[in-house]
Amino acid sequence: MQLGLDDRTYLVTGGGSGIGRGVAAALVDSGAAVLLVGRDEARLAAAATEIGGGPDRVRYRSTDITDEQQVAAAVAELIGWRGRLHGVAHCAGGSQTIGPVTQIDAAAWAGTVELNLTGTVYVLKHSAAELVRGGGGALVAISSIAASNTHRWFGAYGPTKAGVDHLVMLAADELGASRVRVNGIRPGLIRTELVTAVLDSPELSADYRVNTPLPRPGEVTDVANLTLFLLSDAAEWITGQIINVDGGQSLRRGPDFTAMLEPAFGADGLRGVL
Fold first, then answer.
1. What is the per-residue burial (b if ≥16 Cβ within 10 Å, else e) of 66-104?
2. What are the Ketoreductase domain coordinates in residue numbering (predicted)?
3. Model-level pTM?
């Protein structure tokens, strides 16, 4: 199977850490060039150095994806550098809310919606326009198992990722005529610095094991491998799909974070008592 990524150029959001950094490294290893974007310039610089390849293969730009002008400028910089955009790995996202719905902070909710949903719109809007101008390409958006399986007390995270999934399908339907493919990936528990506390918790780790048919946590490479396939020529007739990379956890249920959150909110608080 030929991926056909040699000498192509990709935008990777959230490229300074975690899944984004892993996807960017895999793209470069496959012969592509990448522009890393994210909010933390120091992390981006460190990721670029770690990935290697020099400035002809890896560049970075500090970008807040919730600012449309910054997103547009990042896409323009990539075009100025390489002349053509072939695809996007949209890995940026996160959450500012955790806790019972009766205690959600309005500003934190709005910030999570802005990051996960509005940020995705901006990335899609400006990168898809360049993909169309270039004659086609592919975008892969990293969603979450929380989009399909309820994750109690995760606040805005699951609803916004469900919105990302719908945007993927909408964009795929609209852009297919221009040979632009849009797909999404729903990771489960992936071993990154963000989930260290989960992996270190005996209660949470045990709960994930009970609800995951394949008996290990996911690795960044599990997500990167599918991302590269979906960005490649090997997937040229696949669009509008949301694919889980979760060890099968979506067959069962989302995690039980009682052990971590009950000390902060109380047993009554977790059931909505104020």
1. bebebbbebbebbbeebeebbbbbbbbbebbbbbbeebb
2. 8-193
3. 0.97
